[in-house]
Description:
It catalyses: aldehydo-D-ribose 5-phosphate = D-ribulose 5-phosphate. This protein is of the alpha/beta class. Helix content is about 50%, strand content about 15%. The protein has helices spanning about 10-25, 45-60, 75-80, 95-105, 120-130, 135-150, and strands at about 1-5, 30, 65-70, 90, 110.
Amino acid sequence: MKVHLGTDHAGFEFKEVLKAHLESAGHDVVDHGAHEYDALDDYPAFCIAAAQSVVHDQAAGVDALGVVIGGSGNGEQMAANLVKGARTALAWNPEISKLARQHNNAQIVAVGARQHPEDEAIAIVDAFLAEPFSGDGRHERRISIMSKYEEQGQQAL
Length: 157
């Protein structure tokens, strides 16, 4: 699977560990930055690039998901969700990570590197990457409602 990564300075060290872990598991990892530790970096650009690449790859039929990492993961999630067609979920344990895939067909998981021990953060990402979307009709319907709103800017009631 192709895995796109984006991070801020607070997640930089974990991103490097995660990248090695994912590559050793056979994933094709694309690092959109940060490429060096810089406490003044502007992480939205890195997270938006990762999300754009996931959406683009999936539209082209490529098996791709993404991970955005920050101190809390909140800002990174917000940045990635600005990309049209992207569904990014902030996960704080493996079960939430699985549910984001099963129920919401999230394509990107946000992780707070300062909120978890390294092994726990890796478990959150591994659970996300391993879990398929359920394809259940009620979940498809709800995702469709969100997609239509994103396209049309109004909710059909």
